[in-house]
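Cast an eye over this sequence plus tokens and walk me through the fold:

***
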Amino acid sequence: MSIRRRTILAAAAGLPAAGMFAGQATAQQRFNSMYVFVPAGPGGGWDGLGRAIEQASRAAGMVGSFQFENVGGAGGAVGLPRFVSQRRGRGDAIMVSGAVMVGALITNRTPVGLKDVTPIARMTTEPGVIVVPASSDLRTLQDFLNALRANPGGVAVGGGSAGGIDHITLGLLLKSLGKNAREASYVAFAGGGPAQAAILGSQVRAGISGISEFAEQIKAGRMRALATTGDRRSLDDVPTLKESGIDIVIGNWRGVFGAPGINANQRQALVDWMTALHASSQWREILQRQGWDDAFLAGPAFEDFLRKDQADTEQVLRDIGLAS
């Protein structure tokens, strides 16, 4: 099985060093330094996007230096209040987050939410994938669905934070089978590493996550991909849910937020930075290397998307029994 458009490398080791980019620092420097807050542990999707922004920005000469801080837990709900309280009014600070946080904040009923930060730009998106260990008796998507239909609670499925995209995907699958999401045996993990270990160790029967989390294990033959969640195939020989007769298309977007309380000029400077970064050859090279889908939206367009995404996610969580 080959992985089309999805050659994913680990965030720390897979991104090329600045000196490997064609067309070195030619852009005007926009910030002397930038603080990047990642409300998740190192090595995950949000951290990977933050490191990619650093690499491309430094290579293009847009930012002099970067400082990173990672605070994981509860799909970003643990770290978000820290960013809100400590970086208020700072125009030289960003938070990297995405769709997982939207669902996690709703599920956890947190008082601090994305309303308390400043939307800057949506950068990337990627579909999810349903996998099982290579030795599993669940050979096909239909085998997996039959097992869920027969006994949802008997099929432990591992994924990311409760209420996030992976959990929502399982809930939607159960709903399509006439079941209630509350019947699911969903095991939430703090990151891709623990989830992979649980799947490979058969501690859970299946897993759901972004393709980048499981790509190397699929390529190595240690996991078997049953289906992907995008609107088109991302893995050769692996069907989408939609083409398998299940009307589910869902993706995991990731983006950048500014601190609360920044003024219009500070916000525009961040939007202009992300817009210039997106147009750069350095960023295009990273998208290609990482196999990420370009999902760029900036400023008011991102705000409009975010409002709709929050409303849609809340409705889905209610529909599948994961929110009141």
